Amino acid sequence: MNFNDSIIQYLKEGLSDSEIISNIYSKYAIVLNKKTLLNKRLMVEKMVGHKLKFDISKKIDFKLPNTIKNEFKNYMCDEFTILNLKDEKISYLINLVTRDNVLTEIEKDFLSQKTEELSLPHDLIEKANEYILSKNPYLDNIFSLILSDGIIKKEEIMFLLEKTIENEFDEEHVNNRFWKFAINFHLNKFLEIESFSKLIKIWYTANKLSFDVIYKSDNFLSQFKLFHSNDIKLSIDLALDFFEKKLTDSICSHFKTKDFEINNLYNSIDFKNNELKFVVDKNLKLKSEPSADLVDIKNSFKSHPMKAYGDYKKLMESNNPNISNKKLKEGFRLLIEDN
Asked: What is the pTM of this model?
């Protein structure tokens, strides 16, 4: 394969301009200029009947949407636990002493006394201590009430904010715990919100490309600012705006391309039907609908080769009057060799 054929192949595979320039130099010691590459790109686009865009699916092994969803949930809820004690007395005591996220010495003495008095497990203090900060059952009860019907109303957000201020809870902790609780128990409901489903697609892509600044759980959830307003949909939309730019900038910088379109990522992962809709044909074969004229020319080549070339030349010149004979011959060769 000569270097021209390699350029065409790299374009078909969705490589960025910088990757193609680097590969051609490494393989053939030829410095490919951007003008030449642009001409090649335009030629291939005319052949296939649509613009060539950077294809993220060729850089990442995308799993089925249900797997993506489960990976997201497992990652975000890693080490997430809830107070789930069958003994109501134990549950009540731990709720009582951990409400303010502080376990004082007096509260420890109180639990020790109740342990002996009620013949409770001796690890009661340890259980209470484990729940401090990261697993506050008082908050979980509020979250459960707010999320019970799957609709988060402005009054519920204001109530949670009031309790956060009243108990002097750290807002960042409440925000983080709320979203982990929501993802753990109500992920399917949140997937019905389009902007939230887009955020999962962004997270998965960033995770597979090791963009820590995006996919790490603390970084990710910190942008879901629950108390930014009393409209939770607005909070999700703001997070989406932030991470859309982050992912686009990261991909364009990492792959040295300007051709990444995030909507292609969104449209290619269908959570509802558990389907991936990325283009499977990596060779971008000729499409009959958008380029019916080229299909006819290719089909007539065997019986009328000269006429086929004449028709091809006429078609190309109608789109690009200044096209050179060299480009015409090269494009025609690629057309008839494309299987």
From this structure: 0.66
